[in-house]
């Protein structure tokens, strides 16, 4: 059972996410709270995944993210955002957010996205990805991204491509016919060679390097 905490200042959003996610057999929303209660709720309920509003009136989502990242065994945190919040999304990326979801994400996709996060995958809503790439990795970094990707072996580039598509370790393993343990080793090596701290940063670097636009690449397969 995947334990989820929803943090948002709007009760309607919290209730909506709670209802959608609790309808999945393998997901339980253990708490749904406003931002000021987030850290204490995490300590009490110990969720696997936190869906965190990036901007709230009572406490800034970036502050909450930083507080959660300092916990001894921090949960995976994905930011809830709207399309026009690119500067906050970029800051959250630098602070270690594991994903970004638009609040109007298709409800049918939410359980899958939570499973991906819990399994170590990077979740990037397509509308957010382009904005973050432009805001976090500007044009001056494109050549550096290309050089970084060039350090990878062919198999590592394949793993990076699948990370950039948002696949979890288990999904990558099935796609490449590798064990989950082997995939974890490859992911660790890729992050080290790219000198990034998270799968999301690796995914955006791959996008900036043009890895997903190379001939022969087909998204999702």
Automatic annotation (TrEMBL):
Pfam families given in the database record: GerE, Response_reg
Occurrences of domain Response regulatory (ranges): 3-118
Residue ranges of domain HTH luxR-type in the record: 145-210
Lineage, highest ranks first: Bacteria, Bacillati, Actinomycetota, Actinomycetes, Kitasatosporales
Protein name, UniProt field: Response regulator transcription factor
Modified residues (4-aspartylphosphate): 53
InterPro entries for this protein: CheY-like_superfamily, NreC/VraR/RcsB-like_REC, Sig_transdc_resp-reg_C-effctor, Sig_transdc_resp-reg_receiver, Tscrpt_reg_LuxR_C, WalR-like
Keyword annotations of the record: DNA-binding, Phosphoprotein, Transcription, Transcription regulation
Keyword Lyase: no
């Amino acid at each position: 059972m995947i334990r989820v905490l929803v943090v948002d200042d709007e009760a309607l959003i919290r209730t909506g996410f709670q209802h959608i996610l609790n309808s999945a057999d393998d997901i339980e929303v253990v708490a749904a709270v406003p931002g000021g209660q987030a850290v204490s709720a995490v300590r009490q309920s110990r969720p696997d995944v936190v869906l965190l509003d990036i901007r709230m009136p009572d406490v800034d989502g970036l502050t909450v993210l930083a507080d959660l990242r300092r916990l001894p065994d921090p949960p995976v945190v994905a930011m809830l955002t709207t399309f026009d919040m690119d500067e906050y999304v970029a800051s959250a990326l630098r602070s270690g957010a594991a994903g970004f979801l638009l609040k109007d994400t298709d409800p049918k996709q939410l359980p899958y996205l939570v499973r991906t996060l819990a399994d170590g995958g990077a979740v990037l809503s397509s509308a957010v990805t382009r904005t973050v790439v432009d805001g976090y990795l500007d044009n001056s970094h494109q050549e550096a991204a290309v050089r970084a990707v060039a350090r990878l072996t062919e198999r590592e580039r394949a793993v990076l491509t699948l990370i950039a598509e948002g696949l979890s370790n288990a999904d990558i393993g099935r796609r490449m016919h590798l064990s989950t343990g082997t995939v974890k080793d490859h992911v660790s090596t890729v992050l080290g060679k790219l000198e990034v701290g998270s799968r999301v940063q690796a995914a955006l670097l791959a996008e900036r390097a043009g890895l997903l636009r190379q001939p022969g690449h087909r998204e999702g397969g």
